[in-house]
Structures are given as C-alpha cells and as structure tokens.
Design brief:
The chain has two helices and nine strands; from the N terminus they run αβββαββββββ. By secondary structure, the chain is mainly β. It has a single domain, classed as OB fold (Dihydrolipoamide Acetyltransferase, E2P) (Beta Barrel). It has a five-stranded mixed barrel. The longest helix is centred in the N-terminal third of the chain and has 12 residues. The structure holds zinc ion. The site of zinc ion (ZN) has 8 residues, from loops.
C-alpha cells in the first residue's frame, strides 16, 4: 500500500502524466473592448479565459490581441477556461517555433513586469516584450 502511494506521487510529478484537471487550450488570443478575452481554437471555437489578477490584466491588453498562444489550466464550464496562476508560466506565446512569456519592459529603468501598466519606478508606459522562458530568472 505504501509503495503504491509513493509510486503515484512520483507519477504525478512527471509532466507527461499530469492530473486529469490540467488541460491546455491552444489558438489565437481574441482581446476586444467590451468582450471577455478568449482563445479562438484552430476549430474556430471561442473559449473564454479567466485567470489570476496579473493574467487578467494581460488578457485585457489590446496589444496581445491575435497572439498565437497556449494556456494551461482547466475548463470550469464548456467554453470557459481558467488559466493556472501566472507564476506557473501558464500563458505562453508561440513565436518563431519557440514558447515565450508575455512580459512588460521599461526601457528607461530596465525593469520587467508581468502585467501591463505604468513602470513601478518612472511611471512610463511599459512595452510588451515576448521573452524566452530561459531568459526569465
Ligand atoms: Zn521605468
């Protein structure tokens, strides 16, 4: 019995053997004023997105509209998808065959943020920058 428990714990750690709740949605980000953010899948289905506070801010940034993304999380209802917390790198952009994270960069202070808005230091508007996962911390 104990051996079985240890085995299932180890199995849960492997990315190839995720728990059932973990799902991925892939497609084009649709960010339009007055509409909930969504992903349009290759099958032209719209999946509405929600997430934690920084993820929501990113999802309401019109500059990310049209990005080819994959979101990790789980469906809360048909057509409704809750993205995992942002620190798990749950929202990724396909950019030239690479997976990148949406970040926000102040080129005055060299400060990086993970949600859109004014720079915490100089208040200048930050720029969207897609960043290689290897280049983040
Ligand atoms: Zn700044």
């Amino acid at each position: 019995m104990l051996a079985l428990a240890v085995f299932s714990l180890a199995a849960a750690d492997k990315p190839a053997d995720k728990p059932k709740a973990a799902e991925t949605v892939h497609g084009k980000l649709i960010v339009r004023a007055g509409q909930p953010p969504a992903i349009e899948t290759p099958e032209h289905q719209l999946v509405q997105l929600d997430g934690d506070q920084p993820t929501r801010k990113v999802l309401h940034d019109p500059r990310v509209n049209g990005f080819d993304v994959e979101a990790h999380g789980h469906f809360t209802a048909p057509g409704q998808f809750l993205i995992d917390p942002q620190h798990t790198r749950s929202l990724l952009v396909h950019d030239h065959d690479k997976l990148k994270m949406i970040t926000y960069w102040c080129d005055v202070c060299y400060i990086r943020a993970y949600a859109p808005g004014p720079c915490v230091c100089c208040q200048k508007d930050t720029e969207v920058e897609l960043r290689d996962l290897d280049d983040i911390r």
